[in-house]
Design a protein that fits this description.
The protein is of the alpha/beta class. It has 6 helices and 5 strands. Bound molecules: adenosine-5'-diphosphate.
Length: 163
């Protein structure tokens, strides 16, 4: 029996993308044939970058990873997954708190659209990394350079200088 081609969708806000997200992407692409990073356009609290900027920044970072692409989407994740013919949704896990939230989300997505969610655990060093905290800490002048790629750090510094 031939191996099935598996396409995964990795949805999120990615404002901004962190080393934790990249860790999930690098682990995820080993499990699938194709991985589409899907930047949600739905509004989030205190956004730093527009969805277009987020896509552009991610595209630069994943350009050299075969099988990985990035785009933005509106509306329901499961509808977008169906549109892209994704077989599974990929999500990352850091903690028990993530598990509580992600379990509900995955069950809802499975019950409304029949799509499975596959989880990967982050590396220990990124277990505390979140885009929300990075936005807050960076806005208040904290050093987040260990938690995000250099290119993203530079963009963040530029953005904060302007505001
Ligand atoms: P959302 O707003 O949909 O949670 P995020 O961009 O914050 O979007 O996260 C997208 C996915 O990446 C989620 O599954 C989240 O649990 C996961 N994730 C975020 N940060 C990390 C990290 N440091 N390690 C592993 N997974 C992470």
């Amino acid at each position: 029996m031939g191996k099935k081609f598996i396409r995964a969708l990795f949805p999120g806000s990615f404002d901004p993308i962190t080393n934790g997200h990249l860790d999930v992407i690098n682990r995820g692409i080993k499990l699938f044939d194709e991985l589409i990073i899907a930047v949600g356009r739905s509004p989030i609290k205190n956004p730093l970058f527009t969805p277009e900027e987020r896509v552009e920044m991610i595209a630069e970072l994943v350009a050299d990873i075969p099988g990985v692409s990035v785009e933005s989407f509106d509306g329901l994740t499961v509808k977008y997954a169906a549109k892209k013919k994704a077989d599974v949704i990929l999500r990352g896990l850091r903690s028990l708190t993530d598990i509580h939230y992600e379990l509900k989300l995955a069950m809802t997505n499975r019950s409304v659209a029949g799509i499975e969610t596959v989880f990967v655990m982050t590396s220990e060093q990124y277990g505390f990394t979140s885009s929300t905290l990075i936005r807050e800490v960076a806005t208040l002048g904290g050093d987040v350079s260990n938690l995000i790629p250099k290119t993203i750090y530079n963009r963040l510094q530029q953005r904060l200088k302007k505001s």
